[in-house]
Amino acid sequence: MKQTDLAGIGIGPFNLGLAALLSRHTEVNAVFLDKTSTFHWHAGLLIPGTTLQVPFLADLVTMADPCHPLSYLNYLHQQQRLYLFCYYDRFLIPRQEYDDYCRWAVSQLPSCHFDACVTAVNYDRQQQKFIIESESAAGEKQTYCSQDIAIGVGTRSYEPDWLKQSNHPLIQHSAHFLSMQEQLQQCKQVTVVGAGQSAAECVLALYRALQPEQIKAGASIRWITRSAGFHPMEFSKLGQECFTPVYMQYFQTLTAQKRREISANQGQLYKGISFTTIGDIYNLLYERTIAGAPAGLSLYSNCDVQSVEVQPSGVINMTCLHTQLNQHKTIQTDAIVAATGYSHQWPQWFEDLKGTVLQTDDQNDYLINEDFTAVRCDGGKGRIFIQNAEIAKQGVGSPDLGMGATRNGVIVNQLLGKNYYQVPEYSAFQRYGLPE
After folding, report:
1. Do the bridges between strand 117-124 and strand 189-193 make them parallel or antiparallel, or are there none, so unpaired?
2. Residue 425: what pLDDT?
3. Less crowded by CB within 10 Å, the N or C end of the chain?
4. Residue 246 — pLDDT band, cuts 50, 70, 90?
5. Measured at the alpha carbon of residue 229, what is the angle toward residues 223 and 235, in degrees to the nearest 5?
6. Do 199 and 331 lie in a common domain?
7. Is residue 61 in some structural domain?
8. Judgement on whether residues 324 and 377 belong to the same structural domain of the protein
9. pLDDT single digits (tens) 334-382
10. Cβ neighbours around 302 below 10 Å, total
11. Same domain, 88 and 205
12. Are residue 179 and residue 325 in the same domain, yes or no?
């Protein structure tokens, strides 16, 4: 059994950022475990031409420690791309490069271990420590004894019932888009479901590849959503202030019920499409319909997918309900890309901690403190840090990359027992309490 001060479970950008900050603090012995064989950030959506939706400053460390050697700017410097980036003149960086940056950081962090699936987490009351069991794909097992744990298991693809029930190779979640893109481009009719950024990026990639000759021969893309339209994500300067430490601090002072109510109405802050992507799709539509040419792309809102059935011929029947007209329609397609988003699906070992270690509310949901520790019901000493908690817990900025380094700074301060990293008191022009 290996002894450690902190065991990080899951290595996404947030726990990777925590590992990066801790690399400067050797007095804290930490280990980070992930079930995948190597780091990749949304590998199925690393579409050429796509960018992050946050500025490059929202890297693993900069917002907490701008001089850290694992910053994005130092990555560019080490890659001899700093001048090239300077004249690239963009705040939003290529998604493929962000993925490469994270893997560059992983290569310098010996605390990060892949192919280590955490199978159980228990609290040993005698030792007052967590016992973490992991297993590799080859069956090799390892046990860790840790004072604290940091849970960063992230989210999983959300699959509606009609998607879960299908095993058709061309009915897939958008998380697998790149692996099926070549096959999709050979289909006559492709349907993309959803109205978020991922849906728009899949549509744009497919539409760009669709040649005029194919369109004249009847090939097309159908884009449908149950939403009222294909709306942009909030990207104004004052609107973005919800993604700041001061707003997160304010949000955590509200009652649980009020947090749920507020978060239920904040979808447009993070679920919409970027202005750039909307513009690229619209411009392409305009250019391709000159002189009455067929567009090759049709868009339908207020259409909720009810069922999907694969015919013996291979054609897919998709039945939709128009939520405003209250009418059903069955359409045919050769493939479906379900850009239906992501949701938190906690592993069983986390569910098993509820009621015994984790305090829960009347909905059997865990509770979280302002310092990102879960509330315990057993009086134990070990801390459970929660990364990327649900939005109703920490606010709309919880899954935002720009908040990761600041949250990790708060976590590291607790591990060190001192305020090494400063959380800015003045991070927004707005005030979220009563006027003075």
Report:
1. unpaired
2. 87
3. C
4. very high
5. 110
6. yes
7. yes
8. no
9. 999 999 999 888 999 999 999 999 999 888 889 999 999 999 999 899 9
10. 16
11. no
12. yes
E strands present in 100-164: 112-113, 117-124, 129-135, 141-151, 156-157
What is the C-alpha separation between 3 and 142, in angstroms, rounded?
11
Q: Mean per-residue pLDDT for 101-125?
A: 97
Question: What's the domain range around 225?
Answer: 158-232+271-338
Same domain (yes/no): 142, 162: no
The answer to the question of residue 266 being in a domain is no
Judged by phi (left if over 0) then psi (alpha if -120 to 50, else beta), residue 22 lies in alpha
Q: Domain count for the chain, please give it.
A: 2
**Choice between 389 and 191, residue whose per-residue pLDDT is larger:** 191
Residue 80: Cβ within 10 Å count: 8
Q: How many CB atoms lie within 10 A of CB 85?
A: 18
Same domain, 81 and 215: no
**Residue 321 in tokens:** 């309900």
Clarify whether residues 45 and 57 are in a common domain: yes
Q: The CATH number of the domain where 375 resides is what?
A: 3.50.50.60
Same domain for 356 and 307, yes or no, is no
Q: Is 189:220 a contact under the CB 8 Å cutoff? A: yes
The rounded distance, in Å, linking the Cα atoms of 170 and 4 is: 45
Q: Is 312 helix (H, G, I), strand (E, B) or coil?
A: coil
Smallest CA-to-CA distance from 244 within 91, 397, 390, 394 is with 397
The pLDDT value recorded for residue 40 is 92
* Average pLDDT over every residue of 170-179: 97
Do 6 and 33 contact (CB within 8 A), yes or no? no
Alpha helices in 90-156 (DSSP H): 95-106
326 Rama class: left (phi>0) / alpha (psi -120 to 50) / beta: left
Residue in the structure block whose two tokens are 């984790």: 358
Place of tokens 């104004």: 236
The answer to whether position 430 is within a domain reads: no
Domain-embedded: residue 245: no
Distance (Å, whole) CA 376 – CA 382:
9
Of 320, 338, 356, the residue at which a domain comes to its end is 338
Q: How distant is the alpha carbon of residue 119 from its chain centre?
A: 23
Phi, psi of 155 (to 5 degrees): -120, 165
Q: How much of the chain exceeds pLDDT 90, in percent?
A: 86
